[in-house]
Every structure is written in structure tokens, then in C-alpha cells.
Amino acid sequence: MVDRRKLAAGNWKMNGLGAELAEIDALAAAHKDPSCDILICPPATLIERMVRRADGSAISVGGQDCHPATSGAHTGDISAAMLADAGADHVILGHSERRTDHGETDAGVRVKAEAAIAAGLVAIVCVGETLGEREAGETLAVVGRQVAGSVPDGATGASLVLAYEPVWAIGTGKVPTMDQIAEVHDFIRSALAERVGEAEAGAVRLLYGGSVKPGNADEIFAVSNVDGALVGGASLKAADLGGIIAALERAAG
Ligand code: PGA
Fold first, then answer.
1. Which residue, of 1, 47, 102, 163, has the greatest Cβ tally within 10 A?
2. pLDDT for the residue 253
3. What is the pTM of this model?
4. Is the CB of 209 under 6 A from ligand 1?
5. Which run of H or E residues covers position 24?
């Protein structure tokens, strides 16, 4: 069995001013030598300060989006090279909020992921169905299409993380049943194998995201092919994310 180091990733979304960096101190102090990876993706304005603040700790820092080009006339956008230059080592791509708010498509996410990987970042590609798609029995078809369309050629376990985030579970307190999570994660693993080959598909970490909290993390992390979590709301407070990290460490054994 492939040894996939577990990953607890926090997505701060459009939350956080300088004062909130104190959460990083608390998180670093509570998790000095974790048996899983810890990543925080703050808004771009905080990346460089967070990198400095987390220096010497087990916490790494990522972005929440990047532009596919390296530089150029794209007002308001940030390139993958800029994220790397600021000290980020991961970037979330194709989050459902970006797919909805900014009309991001699978093909668009894929070129961003290619740019991120070329800049030396790990691309965390997000997929997931809406409630309407789930109720219509289309979950696996939708997720399969997103994986096939969003994952770049040649992605590896070192360059790609995949996050399954049912849109209806994000920020709602609703979580799929453990059987539903298992079904989709097992399916994603096999869809990835078709995309990048069996060996690399087996090395890619698959995160579950959507209303993960300290109280439900243990059961989620016990599910087959769940290698960690992408956490929104509960990542804003060190104590909450700390509870999720502790559950992930228990699952890592
Ligand atoms: P949530 O968000 O944990 O607040 O549901 C998850 C995400 O959007 O990544």
C-alpha cells in the first residue's frame, strides 16, 4: 500500500487581517512535530506575512487561486510564480466558489494547475457536485468529468492533491454519509488512474471538504481513500483546526 502522508489544509477564503495571524502562533505551538502535513491558505494579502510567522514551524502556506500566465496585463490577478515568490508552496484551484463566482471551467482549472505545477507549487484541485446533481443521481458523472477535465497531464502524487467538496456541504453544516464519501473517493481514485496512470493515482492525496469539524473528523478520516481534509470555517480558529489535526493524527496511527 502506498504511504500517503495525511494532509490537513485550511482554506481561509476571504477572511483574515493581520490580527488573525495570531492563530498561526497558537497552531504552531500546539503542533510542533505533527504526524500529518498542515497547510493554511490565507488570502493573498497575508501569504508573505504568514510564511514569515510560520517560519520554523510545521505549517506551510498556500494560495487560493492563480492565473495561468506567468505575468502580463491581467489587472488584479496573481501568477503561480508570484505565489511561490511570496513563499507559498501549494495553491487551491477550481474551488466551487470560484467556479460559481468567476465562471471557472474544468479546462480553465487545468491550465491553472499546469501553471502552478510548472512554478513548483502543489496544485489542490477541487471537484464536487451540487445538491441538484446529487439528487438527479449524477454525482459520479459530474465528478468524473471534473477530474478528467481539470487534472493536468503528467500530474503526480508530489504535484497534485485532489479535494472532493460536495457544493451542498460547504459551509452548510451538512455532510454526506460516510458511504457516500467512500463511494466518491474510491471513484476518484480510479478516475485519476485513467488520467495519470495507476502508480501516480495511488500516490495522490484525496481530501474531503465540506463542513469538517472536530466533532465529525474521526469518522470522516476512517473512510477509505480519505487522506485528509480541506477545511473552511473551522480552519479560522487554531483550536478548531487543532481538533481536526488531532483526529487526522489518530487516523494516521
Ligand atoms: P467549510 O468549507 O469547511 O466551511 O464547509 C470547506 C471549503 O470550502 O473548502
1. 163
2. 81
3. 0.98
4. yes
5. helix 22-30
Q: What pLDDT was estimated at residue 1?
A: 52
Q: Who's near 172: CB < 8 A, 6+ residues apart?
A: 210, 211
| Candidate list 95, 104, 133, 200, residue with the active-site label | 95
Q: Is the CB–ligand 1 distance for residue 210 below 6 Å?
A: yes
Nearest to 128 by CA among 176, 167, 173: 167
249 has catalytic annotation: no
Distance CA 218, CA 131 (A): 24
State which ligand 1 atom lies nearest to the alpha carbon of 230: 9
Classify residue 221 as exposed, middle or buried by CB count within 10 Å of its CB (0-12, 13-18, 19+). buried
C-alpha of residue 240 to centroid of ligand 1, in Å:
13
> Taken in order 251, 22, 43, 111, is the CA torsion positive or negative?
negative
pLDDT, tens digit, 9 for 90 and up, residues 107-134: 999 999 999 999 999 999 999 999 999 9
d(CA 32, CA 249): 13
**Domain 7-252 class in CATH:** alpha beta
